[in-house]
Write a structure and sequence with these properties.
Blueprint lengths: L10 H7 L20 H9 L7 E6 L2 H6 L11 E4 L4 H17 L10 E7 H6 L2 H9 L5 E6 L39 H7 L4 E5 L4 H13 L4 E6 L3 H4 L6 H11 L5 E4 L2 E4 L11 H4 L10 H26 L2
Parallel strand pairs: 1-2, 1-3, 3-4, 4-6, 5-6
Antiparallel strand pairs: 5-7, 7-8
Helix pairs in contact: 4-6
Bound molecules: thiamine diphosphate.
The site of thiamine diphosphate (TPP) has 17 residues, from helix 3, strand 3 and helix 5.
């Protein structure tokens, strides 16, 4: 890894910097998320990166279900619940409407109104992918955030195309004839990069300042931005709820979920890992969805993770010079 690239995460300083984070909550308490839900923790951080001039478009999924049991809401922002498949299409319309109203003088044109679309991995990698692709290619000025708990969780842990290799879900059950999910996880961040989104980042609530910084950047630039947030799900993964933040860190430290950003085509890894990656088994162990894995699948898992991390380091070297 090139020594010149300045990494954003300097953990000792972060402890102090966190005290400076906005105290105002836009995703407030009272929601019904499960214990240890990292997606809910992530939302809390995400909405500390923006001000009240923000409109949220939320696809059906856990985060919508837990935050809006009629007649209550956890949202202190304008918030639209939309269908499972069209969060990015609705966000495109909202962004276009804001522009039109500002042009006509019916909305203060000096106001920077941020539009954030939110979807789970099912709503993003599978059923909403078409709408997302269209919105990115039309270059709407909005930020799409996928919280990736690696399955269709609120409907009972069905596998999505973002479910990792070998994970047992209700539609990819591990047993005598199957070792769980049979294919590799779809890489949504790279799909957004391929659309030439102006800003793309992976993030994790276990690194709150990094997450907040990335959301700030995504919402401040003019143009389409995509953030892929890792979201540990104790209910669906069979993990200890007290372990969610630690597990998010292990995902990053093993490279299973590498943290990086691509700002106008330039890659930058977010973590300094001078000792290299930890073995993937540090992350896999302790998760019920992986407990059946045969050694050959673990080996394949390790190989894919190492190869992807090496590719990212190469991309960083290549693109930082551009
Ligand atoms: C077209 C359509 N198909 C299926 C459903 C049922 N459904 C609602 S939410 C959901 C799962 C959502 O999964 P994901 O996007 O990963 O979010 P999570 O529940 O994990 O937060 C499903 C299958 C629906 N609402 N609409």
């Amino acid at each position: 890894m090139s020594a010149e690239v300045k990494r954003p995460i300097e953990s000792a300083l972060n402890v102090f910097a966190y005290r400076l984070v906005e105290k105002e909550e836009f995703f407030t308490r009272g929601h019904r998320a499960c214990q240890g839900c990292a997606a809910a923790l992530g939302l809390r951080h995400i909405f500390k990166a923006v001000d009240k001039d923000t409109i949220v478009i939320n696809a059906t999924g856990c985060m919508e279900i837990v935050s809006s049991p009629y007649p209550f809401t956890s949202w202190a922002l304008p918030w639209l619940h939309v269908a499972f498949e069209n969060a990015a299409a609705v966000a495109s319309g909202v962004e276009a409407a804001v522009k039109a109203l500002q042009r006509k003088g019916r909305l203060d044109p000096s106001k920077k109104i941020k539009v954030i679309a939110l979807g789970g991995d099912g709503g993003t990698a599978d059923i909403g992918l078409q709408a997302l692709s269209g919105a990115l290619i039309r270059r709407h000025n909005f930020t799409y955030i996928c919280y990736d708990n690696e399955a269709y969780m609120n409907t009972g842990v069905q596998g999505s195309s973002a479910t990792p290799l070998g994970a047992s879900t209700t539609t990819t059950p591990a047993g005598k004839v199957s070792f769980g999910q049979g294919y590799w996880k779809k890489n949504l961040a790279e799909i957004a990069v391929a659309h030439k989104a102006d800003y793309v980042a992976t993030a994790c609530p276990s690194y709150p300042l990094d997450l907040i910084r990335k959301v700030k950047r995504a919402t401040e630039i003019e143009g389409p931005a995509y953030i892929h947030m890792f979201a540990v799900c104790p209910t669906g993964w069979g993990t200890d709820p007290a372990y969610s933040v630690r597990l998010g860190r292990l995902a990053a430290e093993t490279g299973v979920f590498p943290l990086y950003e691509v700002d106008h085509g330039k890659y930058r890894l977010s973590l300094d890992l001078p000792q290299g990656l930890r073995p993937v088994t540090d992350y896999l162990k302790g998760q019920r969805r992986f407990r059946h894995l045969p050694q050959e699948v673990i080996d394949e898992f390790q190989e894919m993770v190492t190869r992807e991390y090496e590719r990212l380091k190469k991309m960083e070297r290549l693109t930082q010079e551009l």
